[in-house]
Amino acid sequence: KGKHMPFKGYEASASVIDGIIFVQTHLYPDMFDNDFENCIALLYRSEDNGETWTEMRFTPEFFGINSNIVLCMSRNLIKLPDNSIVGFVWTMGECQYRVRSIDKGKSWSIDIVEDGDIKFKEGTYRPIMAEAVTFITPSKRLMAVARVTLSNLADENIPHLYNAKPFDTDEGDGMLLIESNDFGLTWHAVRGL
């Protein structure tokens, strides 16, 4: 028999790391009991197979930024080779952050993420980690698949970028394979997908 889960928000995605279930969502002001002026990112954590959950709110105050900023979370969390857990929170057109936990998701620290050599045309920035899915390859490379707006990218020399087949759903009309050599703090374009 099904059980009601306590998740608020929309676009839920899940990660399971060392037997701990994490579910991340976005919560807009007009949804549920959100008392914030804008969208916030929520992270739910369960150590007992979903019987009980704790809620972590990634709010503008948590990041020390303007309270009118929209915050969303990338599609998954990932365990790094140093056993820390990381995820990515981004703001609409402003900044992106790596959130990192060294205690299995009980508490989180913040670092600013840079796009590295991925350049956008002036006035067209979309955080590279927006809706990104991160993964570690068998050779221990930290990589992600990121949605991008092809016409906003300033670098036309990214291999296979314009071979990507655009889709007409919203501004993210292409996919980019990116890589980080510093545990997710800086990202570099590898190729279009």
Describe, in plain words, how this protein is organized in 3D.
- This protein is an all-beta fold and 193 residues long.
- Helix content is 2%, strand content 38%.
- The chain is built from one helix and 13 strands, in the order E-E-E-E-H-E-E-E-E-E-E-E-E-E.
- It has one helix at residues 60-63, and strands at 10-17, 20-27, 40-46, 54-58, 71-73, 78-79, 85-91, 96-101, 109-112, 133-136, 142-148, 174-180, 188-192.
- Strands 5, 6, 7, 8 and 9 form a five-stranded antiparallel β-sheet that branches. The protein has a four-stranded antiparallel β-sheet with strand order 1-2-3-4. Strands 10-11-12-13 form a four-stranded antiparallel β-sheet, with no helix packed on it.
- A hairpin with a 7-residue loop joins strand 12 (174-180) and strand 13 (188-192).
- The longest helix is centred in the first third of the chain and has 4 residues, at 60-63.
- The chain is globular and about 50 Å long.
- The N and C termini lie far apart (41 Å).
- 29% of the residues are buried.
Write a concise keyword list for the protein shown above.
193 residues, single chain, mainly beta, four-stranded antiparallel beta sheet, five-stranded antiparallel beta sheet
Short note summarizing the structure:
The chain is mainly β and 193 residues long.
Largest sheet: 5 strands, antiparallel
- Estimate the helix proportion, in percent: under 10%
- Tell me, briefly, the overall form: globular
Number of strands: 13
The helix-strand sequence is EEEEHEEEEEEEEE
Strand content: 35-45%
Overall radius of gyration: 17 Å
Query: What's the N-to-C terminus distance?
Result: 41 Å
Structural class: mainly beta
Mean pLDDT: 84
Stretches where pLDDT is under 50 for at least 5 consecutive residues are none
